[in-house]
Amino acid sequence: MILTFDFILILFLFISAIASITIKDLLSAVIILGAYSFFMCLLWAQMAAVDVAFTEASVSAGIGTVLFIGAVSKTERRSKD
Amino acid sequence: MIQKSDDVIVRTVARSLMPFILIYGLYVVMHGHYSPGGGFQGGVILAAGFVLLTVTQGIERTRQHMSQKTACVISSVGLLIYAGIGALCLILGGRYLDYGRLSQLLQVDQPTARSLGILGVEIGVALGVMAVMCIIFFSIFAADETE
Predict the structure, then answer these.
(1) How many other CB atoms are found less than 10 A from the CB of residue B142?
(2) What is the Cβ-side half-sphere exposure of residue A59, based on CA atoms within 13 angstroms?
(3) Which chain B residues are closer than 8 Å to A62 by Cβ?
(4) Domain boundaries of chain A, sorted by first residue
């Protein structure tokens, strides 16, 4: 049962990782990267590394998203390539 | 760049949430040595409180609480606490950050001295991380004020 939960988390992790590097709208990419960080945090907690999960949640999903949004607001919102 | 929010609900909720965020950050720092958390995570949570204050109250209001100069001083004090405790252990005859040697200075037994040493180092790390995160955030979002 826990293994099923693991596979669901990994599936969502892959989907959000691929979506964040293929999407053209950079603001959406930042938000999906935040979702990726949160799934990674759940996986760390599932693997009993609570301290790493805490760091992932606070740094990557918290402050990192804010700083990326600031960087996107300084440049263009659409990706060129 | 960031103006004060027009919505009274957003401003009131953020203002009433701010003390709880700061208390939670202090809890994470203080319990870092025997539960998940520590100086780095606690400092980031404290900085997130200032980010929330900036987004809702505008950057001018936050500057009154945490100006560039204050942030620089706090980050330097944090580094001084970390390096000072390490060098103090060196002076007392141990290795760098060998907290057991602090028992001579604090007049307590060695396990208690180690616990207090880790707590001091984590407070230093939390102060440094909080101030540097605030500096990074301000310098990204306030860059076009100088242009």
Answers:
(1) 16
(2) 17
(3) 44-45, 48
(4) 2-74
Segment-wise mean pLDDT, segments of 10 residues, chain B, 147 residues: 79 91 92 85 92 86 85 94 91 86 84 89 93 90 62
Contact B44 A59 (CB under 8 A): yes
In a domain, B30, yes or no: yes
Amino acid at B138: F
Domain count, chain B: 1
Q: Which helix (H) or strand (E) holds B22?
A: helix B8-30
Q: Which of A37, A47, A51 to substitute to test the interface with B, most B CBs within 10 Å?
A: A51
Considering the domain boundaries, does residue B2 fall inside one? Answer: no
The domain in which residue B114 lies consists of 8-145
ipTM above 0.85, yes or no: no
Tokens of A2: 């826990």
Chain B residues within 8 A of A67 when measuring between CB atoms: 136-137, 140
Interface membership of A58 toward B (CB under 8 Å)? yes
Q: For the segment A16-43, what is each residue's pLDDT rounded down to a tens digit?
A: 999 999 998 999 999 999 999 999 999 9
Terminal Cα distance for chain B, rounded:
11
Domain presence at residue B85: yes
Q: Do the Cβ atoms of B74 and B130 come closer than 8 Å? A: yes
Answer whether residue B134 is part of any domain.
yes
